[in-house]
Amino acid sequence: MSVKRITSIDVARYAGVSPSAVSRTYTAQHKVSAATRQKVLAAADALGYHPNALARALVNSGRQGSGTVAVVMSEFDNPFQPYLFSLLTQALQQAGYIPMLINVTADCDIHTSLLQAQAWQVEAAIISAGSLSQAATERCLELQLPMVLMGREDRQKKVTAVLSDNRYAGRLAADYLADAGLTRLAFISGRQDGQASQERQQGFCARLQERALPAPLVILNQDYAYQSGYRAMQRIIRHAPHAEGVFCACDALAFGALDAQRLEDHRRRPVIGCDDTPMANWQGYRLTTVRQPVEQLVKQVLINLKQVLSGCAGAAATVRIQPELVVR
After folding, report:
1. Among candidate residues 292, 49, 25, the one with its CA nearest the CA of residue 172
2. What is the DSSP letter of 216?
3. Does the pLDDT at position 164 exceed 50?
4. If both were cysteines, with which of 105, 221, 256, 327 could 230 make a disulfide (CB 3.0 to 4.6 Å apart)?
5. 3-state helix, strand, coil in the chain (%, to 5)
């Protein structure tokens, strides 16, 4: 049995007022008399009417568009992505936007997904490109849609991007391990086409070279997954047991590396992560890590989003925000 949706016209008829009077009752900048307002609210309560909150919010905000912003993201099995998504969507909602998730999977046609989103009157997109392949990011950039990148730069320098200073993150990890007197080190990488992983490795290696220490052993991976970190540590245990400390391109890799070391080796090498996800502070890990300034990153993304939507963005730029080491 279908249930009839109550509309403002039904409320107007029940209250004996015009449809425009109902609309004005629920629109902040318009006024109706107290008597009319009381009639409308009483009718709405009797009929179980709920006004269109989206439409009302858009009228009140003065925006002409839908207020919907697509958040394009992948790798939700990596604890950093849900953490970032939570903070980002909270910030969007507080700013009066409506976030729409586009979860990119390996077999997903991202171009088609974004076209479908545009059919729902999406105004702009925030591309969490650090969780996407370079190819998927390029597909996003093909669309004529206002957007901001996170975690990866636009090679064509047409879209503003917001990133952590990843090379500095690598330098922080190198200094921490070197200051502890460790010289034989290893780096566990993330996605091979991941800008963050590449830059963290570059910063790590450059700082060790500056300190006249040997180049680290580099274990390459195709992703940022826990299992990849676990397997990488297994390789270190079996083929490079002399390694004294390990820097991982992200926390998820570090969690896998720590568990592999705990279960398969008697040694307890320092393992450093990069992200500072909430899980890093769990008692079972207490991971020393380089904290990404997620709150600042999100704040900067919102600034850039408002600029591109207003047409005042100017030339595309890359904004880098400095991370910090968290020792546990």
Report:
1. 292
2. P
3. yes
4. 256
5. 45, 15, 40
Using the predicted structure, report yes or no on whether residue 163 has a pLDDT greater than 70: yes
Predicted TM-score of the model (pTM): 0.79
Residue 213: exposure state from Cβ atoms within 10 A (0-12, 13-18, ≥19) = middle
Domains in the chain (CATH in brackets) are 8-60 (1.10.260.40), 68-164+294-322 (3.40.50.2300), 166-291 (3.40.50.2300)
pLDDT of residue 61: 47
Average pLDDT, the chain: 88
Stated as kind and residue range, the H or E segment containing 185 is: strand 185-188
Q: Give the integer Cα–Cα distance in Å for 80 and 95.
A: 23
Neighbours of 77 (CB within 10 A): 13
pLDDT on residue 65: 60
> Which positions ≥6 away from 235 have C-beta within 8 Å?
219
Q: How far apart are CA 11 and CA 17, in angstroms?
A: 8
* Encoded tokens for 132: 């996407």
Cβ(246)–Cβ(236) under 8 Å? yes
Tell me: pLDDT of 75 over 50.
Answer: yes
